[in-house]
From TrEMBL, chain A:
Keyword flag Translocase: yes
Organism whose genome encodes this protein: Bradyrhizobium valentinum
CDD domains documented for this protein: ABC_subfamily_A
Coiled-coil intervals: none
Residue ranges of every copy of the ABC transporter domain listed in the record: 6-236
Family annotation (PANTHER family): ABC TRANSPORTER ATP-BINDING PROTEIN, ABC TRANSPORTER ATP-BINDING PROTEIN NATA
SUPFAM superfamilies for this protein: P-loop containing nucleoside triphosphate hydrolases
UniProt protein name: Nodulation factor ABC transporter ATP-binding protein NodI
Location(s), subcellular: Cell membrane
GO cellular component terms, A-Z: plasma membrane
From TrEMBL, chain B:
Statement: the UniProt record of this protein carries the keyword Cell inner membrane: yes
Name this polypeptide is given: Nodulation protein J
Gene Ontology CC entries for this record: ATP-binding cassette (ABC) transporter complex
Record's bilayer topology term: Multi-pass membrane protein
């Protein structure tokens, strides 16, 4: 097994005049969790589909698990598990039948599938639901079944397109915990997300995308330190322009986004002193996060 | 580009079986209703036309009208079973149910999926066609052994019409477009191809058109077998049906690639 799981070189894709992926290059090492982070329409899903060989790039070179893609994508997919953006489980089948049918798509015999089903059900915390119809499961359970289904062929690489979108916080945390377990077992994960928190918690490295272009790449902490490197004060209410001139001397950088003023301050106390006593202001002091990085790099907040 | 098309063709000779088995499992859950639904229409035609018109028509080519009609109804029911399974059920699996999308994430290719769907639709055609033949044999309009001999012809009829319908599915933006195929292609074929009356009754121009249509070749294969008559031009009929099965199959894969993998 090569140590590079995914290798993209100068990949471009456009639909008519619209460029969706614009000269993108990145490499994902075996065993790491690599995130594609960006707003809706940044090209994340297209890239995930390209990696699976479902979309052919206009130009550029792609290698996935040592196979040239899309030409030999089928052989790569034999060792990939996919969690798609929208559930596509068999609603009329039971949980067990879903796993059986999916195992057959990998040429697994009924006996081979039965051998792994108990472990997968335990992993997905669906032991008590083995014979329930999928239509009866909650959203979080369906997502966990989709995750278990993706593991049926014991894949080396998992491709996950927005795995927790649409889940409530409890269900989301459960998925995150399961994903960390998979990483501990040595799986490689390619994850697309627009949740900064998800990217920060799970990803070893990530690539920030905007309009199909890479605008930053690196470890989440390193990106935050590099781009921001200090505390953030969010200020709501008041006139952003008046306020920004007031605190500018004490701020490294100021961004205005809508009605919110983001003040990046090496010494937050100084800024707070300036604002003390002003009526109608709400202040929030917090450590910098990826949201700030995105705002800094693009001049706008991430659309959700 | 050529490499791109090669990558979506069936990967091997057995991958399609997994798709067939998925459809079989889904069908097993609703089998009774499905069988009744598939049989009601051709049965109504067979008895309604057979007994009703049979009184007026008398003998055709030396056999009773209902015996003549039985062969035509076997071919027609195979055609409609395969057509409808593909147009409605396979289209739903491609679109609303996202079944194909899930399968495309595995080591199966688009070609494997299409082949599995065709094999499944042909299976349903065999069920529907054979059931009519069994009824005909029970009533004494066909020899029991003839059912066995007609099954291969019924199966290939199923493949042909599944394959043709697959092209329609690959092009249709929504269910609404299937009506055109049904009313402009499928239904006229029943009357043009000798299913309900002999082709020789039509003007010669129509007879030439009928010679090009797949259902005519199916009827010409199945009817003589069921009536225990010698059949002519078997090689030509089988060759024509194979063309109608294979060419649309590859065409539909190419069209699906453009539709689903862009």
């Amino acid at each position: 097994m090569s140590t590079v799981a995914i290798d993209l070189t100068c990949v471009r894709k456009s639909y008519g005049d619209k460029i969706v992926v614009d000269g993108l290059s990145f490499a994902v090492a075996s065993g790491e969790c690599f995130g594609l982070l960006g707003p809706n329409g940044a090209g994340k899903s297209t890239i995930a589909r390209m990696v699976l060989g479902m979309v052919a790039p206009d130009t550029g070179k792609m290698t996935v698990l040592g196979e040239p893609v899309p030409a030999r994508a089928r052989l790569a997919r034999a060792r990939i598990g996919v969690v798609p953006q929208f559930d596509n489980l068999e609603l009329d089948f039971t949980v067990r039948e879903n796993l059986l049918v999916f195992g057959r798509y990998f040429n697994m015999s009924a006996r081979q599938v039965e051998a792994v089903v108990p472990e997968l059900l335990e992993f997905a915390r669906l032991e008590s639901k083995a014979d329930a119809r999928v239509a009866e499961l909650s959203g979080g359970m369906k997502r966990r079944l989709t995750l278990a289904r993706a593991l049926i062929n014991d894949p080396h690489l998992l491709v996950m397109d927005e795995p927790t979108t649409g889940l409530d916080p409890h269900a989301r945390h459960l998925i995150w915990e399961r994903l960390r377990l998979l990483l501990a077992r040595g799986k490689t994960i390619l994850l697309t997300t627009h949740f900064m928190e998800e990217a920060e918690r799970l990803c070893d490295r990530l690539c920030v995308l905007e309009a199909g272009r890479k605008i930053a790449e690196g470890e989440p902490r390193a990106l935050i330190d590099e781009q921001i490197g200090c505390q953030v004060i969010e200020i709501y209410g008041g006139n952003p322009h008046e306020l920004s001139s007031l605190i500018r001397p004490y701020a490294r950088h100021i961004e205005v986004s809508g009605e919110t003023l983001f003040c990046y301050a090496p010494d937050p106390e100084q800024v707070l002193v300036q604002l003390r006593g002003r009526a109608g202001l709400r202040l929030l002091q917090r450590p910098a996060n990826l949201e700030d990085v995105f705002l800094r790099l693009t001049g706008r907040e991430m659309e959700r | 580009m050529r490499e791109g098309y090669a990558a979506v063709m069936p990967a091997n000779a057995y991958n399609w079986v997994a798709v067939w088995r998925r459809n079989f499992l889904a069908w097993r859950k609703v089998a009774l209703a499905s069988v009744l639904g598939n049989l009601a229409d051709p049965m109504t035609n067979l008895f309604g036309l057979g007994f009703g018109l049979g009184i007026i028509v008398g003998l055709i080519d030396g056999t009773s009208y209902i015996a003549f009609l039985a062969g035509g109804m076997v071919a027609t029911s195979a055609m409609t079973a395969a057509t409808f399974e593909t147009m409605y059920a396979a289209f739903a699996r491609m679109r609303a149910q996202r079944t194909w999308e899930a399968i495309l994430c595995t080591q199966l290719t688009l070609g494997d999926i299409v082949l599995g769907e065709l094999a499944w639709a042909a299976t349903k055609a065999v069920l529907a066609g054979t059931a009519i033949a069994v009824v005909a044999a029970t009533l004494g309009y066909a020899a029991w052994a003839s059912i066995l001999y007609s099954i291969p012809a019924i199966a290939i009829t199923g493949f042909v019409f599944a394959s043709l319908a697959m092209v329609v599915v690959s092009l249709a933006p929504s269910y609404d477009y299937f009506v055109f195929y049904q009313t402009l292609v499928v239904t006229p074929m029943v009357f043009l191809c000798g299913a309900v009356f002999p082709v020789s009754q039509m003007p010669s121009a129509f007879q030439r058109v009928a010679g090009l249509l797949p259902l005519a070749h199916s009827v010409d294969l199945i009817r003589p077998v069921m009536l225990g008559l010698p059949a002519g031009g078997i090689g030509l009929h089988i060759g024509a049906l194979c063309m109608y099965a294979v060419l649309p199959f590859f065409l539909s894969i190419a069209l699906f690639r453009r539709r689903l993998m862009r």
